[in-house]
């Protein structure tokens, strides 16, 4: 059976290959420390589970409007608008089965074939996949390491911006864990306005922070009318498998995204949307979740930073660390960071992704990075896994 030509352009989350390697190693009777998983091993707060059960008993099991049930759209408009200082109504909200569909639908709704699309690299791999799949021109922009984390290479962004029509911006960032400074965000907004770019602001981690407050680029002057926000319940409420999120967009764009919903999934699961209303009305369950993630961050970042040859910042946001392991890769005499990941798994059971799972590396990259996610592993295992890694590296 001959497949459609465009499938050759569809990427994937290559990190799933890391899960397979880890599962294979575990199946051979070995202990695995799963730092590769961007999932959360903590339960969804009880009020949300109860609301979903009630909604099923109440018979909310049929189709519902493609753009989402009115009470959820209203609650999202109030919540997202309040947190970001945006004037929103339900007409700006299109409910989605998760945050990820917002990426696909943004590209389908806003990008013509051949349009240049700026996107972060390293970054969430689905951006590149969807740009290529729908025939756009991929324009990756890079980050540079700073004493406290990572920042966007604004010189490169300025150079590329005239070729672009769309800009994908992910703040707070996966996999880097970093956050734009106010100056960096203002410069990105300035470039978007100067070059008339339409922006996807991926805010999947907006609430996943341990101090300070987040800012949405949509709240900067001149940005609301040119920005679509990706919002998701996945991280804040430990609801990754529920599949609930939304696109926030100017009303005429939201209406077109709703039309794509009708063509794709008809509607997001009705009783899951009812549970989403309960989550927004009583978000208290997300505080213990963040407190636990902070304990894990401290254990993981502290442990990694204490290994000679590894430098690791302590991000205030997301649940990712992006340590620089260049010196260790050299000291172990390994060819690549991919070899480092494979050797580490087989010597210590510690499983993690590398820079190569987050977009194609640029030819001028000289440093090696790995990504540690600490959302799916308890503090004791973090400490033991990183201890094993340290002992192995030190004895090598
Ligand atoms: C940057 C970023 N955007 C979007 C998503 C997708 O979120 P969801 O699981 O809600 O589809 C993720 C998930 O890990 C992510 O890291």
Please provide a brief summary of the model.
By secondary structure, the protein is of the alpha/beta class. The protein has helices spanning 15-27, 46-57, 70-84, 100-110, 126-133, 154-160, 182-194, 251-264, 270-281, 286-305, 326-331, 337-348, 379-395; strands at 33-34, 93-96, 116-120, 137-141, 143-146, 149-152, 166-170, 198-202, 227-232, 245-248, 320-321, 350-351, 353-354, 370-373.
Question: What does the model show?
Answer:
This protein has 396 residues and is an alpha/beta fold. The chain has 2 domains: 5-43 and 286-395, Aspartate Aminotransferase, domain 1 (Alpha-Beta Complex), CATH 3.90.1150; 46-284, Type I PLP-dependent aspartate aminotransferase-like (Major domain) (Aspartate Aminotransferase, domain 2, 3-Layer(aba) Sandwich), CATH 3.40.640.10. Helix content is 40%, strand content 14%. The strands form 4 sheets. A 7-stranded mixed β-sheet has the order 2-10-9-8-7-3-4, with helices on both faces. It has a 3-stranded antiparallel β-sheet with strand order 11-14-13, covered by helices on one side. A two-stranded parallel sheet has the order 1-12. It is globular, with a radius of gyration of 21 Å. The model has no long low-confidence stretch (mean pLDDT 97). Pyridoxal-5'-phosphate is lined by residues 38, 98-100, 124, 170, 174, 202, 204, 232, 234, 240, 245.
């Amino acid at each position: 059976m001959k497949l459609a030509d465009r499938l050759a352009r569809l990427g994937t989350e290559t990190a799933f290959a890391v899960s397979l390697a880890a599962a294979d190693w575990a199946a051979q009777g070995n202990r695995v420390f799963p730092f590769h998983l961007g999932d959360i091993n903590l339960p969804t707060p009880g009020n949300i589970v109860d609301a979903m059960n009630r909604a099923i008993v109440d018979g909310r099991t049929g189709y519902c409007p493609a753009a989402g049930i009115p009470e959820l759209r209203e609650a999202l408009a109030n919540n997202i608008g309040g947190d970001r200082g945006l004037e929103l109504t339900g007409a700006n909200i299109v409910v989605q089965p998760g945050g990820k569909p917002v990426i696909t639908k943004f590209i389908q709704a806003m990008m013509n074939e051949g349009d240049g699309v700026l996107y972060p690299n390293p970054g969430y791999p689905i951006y590149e996949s969807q740009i290529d799949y729908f025939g756009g021109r991929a324009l990756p922009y890079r980050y540079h390491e700073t004493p406290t984390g990572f920042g966007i290479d604004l010189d490169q962004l300025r150079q590329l911006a005239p070729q672009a029509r769309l800009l994908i911006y992910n703040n707070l960032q996966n996999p880097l864990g970093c956050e734009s400074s106010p100056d960096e965000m203002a410069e990105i907004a300035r470039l978007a306005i100067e070059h008339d770019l339409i922006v996807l602001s991926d805010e999947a981690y907006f609430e996943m922070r341990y101090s300070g407050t987040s800012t949405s680029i949509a709240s900067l002057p001149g940005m609301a009318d040119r920005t679509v926000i990706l919002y998701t319940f996945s991280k804040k409420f430990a609801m990754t498998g529920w599949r609930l999120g939304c696109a926030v967009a100017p009303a005429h764009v939201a209406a077109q995204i709703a039309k794509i919903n009708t063509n794709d999934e008809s509607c997001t699961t009705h009783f899951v949307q009812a549970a989403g209303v309960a989550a927004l009305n009583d978000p208290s369950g997300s505080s213990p979740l963040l407190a636990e993630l902070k304990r894990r961050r401290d254990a993981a970042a502290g442990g990694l930073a204490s290994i000679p040859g590894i430098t690791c910042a302590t991000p205030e946001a997301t649940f990712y660390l992006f340590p620089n392991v260049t010196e260790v890769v050299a000291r172990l005499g390994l060819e690549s960071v991919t070899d480092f990941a494979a050797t580490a798994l087989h010597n210590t059971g510690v499983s993690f992704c590398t820079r190569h799972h987050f977009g194609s590396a640029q030819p001028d990259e000289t440093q090696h990075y790995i990504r540690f996610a600490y959302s799916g592993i308890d503090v004791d295992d973090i400490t033991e896994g990183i201890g094993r890694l340290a002992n192995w590296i030190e004895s090598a």
